[in-house]
Design goal:
Strand content: 15-25%
Largest sheet: 6 strands, mixed
Number of helices: 6
Number of strands: 6
Shape: globular
Structural class: alpha/beta
Oligomer: single chain
């Protein structure tokens, strides 16, 4: 644990922090929330993937994230918890190769709930949400459960960085919700005040 440089496994440090908090505080394990903004959404996606029992690569740079060999795994007898909610702001919902479909299916089986925020200059998560919906359905989740627990919020009307895709989905396709700037800004301010790690304590 700890260290720096090319072989530094940041993920191990992060999950050990969560493990410590679970062991020392009365925390609801079903309501562990992780929030990522920009680059930290890639780190959060990797943490979610690893806690779902999937192999991972801790050395991810913008130029090649998702392409490095996945040589690390977590011992699930030690790290016997998963992330319950992912608040993904201005980044990637397991996209651009971070999650394979096998990763998405493993994540779906944990029941991960997510709210993804895209804006005009952000990444476009429409296809990644579609892939996750497919994984949820394969894992046995109903359309109603998906509608209640997976949300993509886009502002303004066109969230595509290429301008090629509209964010308004076909009927029954993805859970797309267009919110006002005020609502999004208020939520981001709240999340910033809460910090990057949020846990519900009973």
């Amino acid at each position: 644990m700890g260290g720096n440089g090319e072989d530094y496994d940041y993920l191990l440090d992060d999950v050990n922090v969560i493990k410590y908090l679970l062991e020392h505080y009365n925390i609801d394990r079903d309501r562990i929330i992780i929030h990522g903004n920009s680059r930290s959404t890639m780190a959060a996606s990797t943490i979610i993937q690893a806690l779902a029992g999937q192999p991972y690569s801790a050395g991810q740079d913008a130029a090649d994230w998702g392409d490095r060999p996945r040589t690390k795994t977590l011992d699930k007898s030690v790290y016997d918890f998963e992330i319950g909610v992912f608040l993904c702001n201005n980044g990637l919902y397991g996209g651009q190769g971070l999650w394979t479909y096998e990763d998405r299916l493993a994540v779906a089986k944990t029941g991960l709930r997510a709210w993804i925020f895209d804006a005009e200059q952000d990444f476009n998560n429409i296809d990644y949400v579609e892939e996750q919906i497919k994984a949820f359905k394969e894992a046995g989740y109903s359309d109603q459960w998906i509608a209640e627990n997976l949300r993509l919020t886009c502002f303004p009307l066109n969230c595509s960085t290429t301008g090629a895709r509209a964010t308004t989905p076909p009927p029954g396709s993805i859970i797309g919700t267009l919110e006002t700037v005020r609502s999004i800004t208020a939520l981001i301010v709240i999340l910033m005040r809460m910090g990057s790690w949020c846990m519900t304590v009973r």
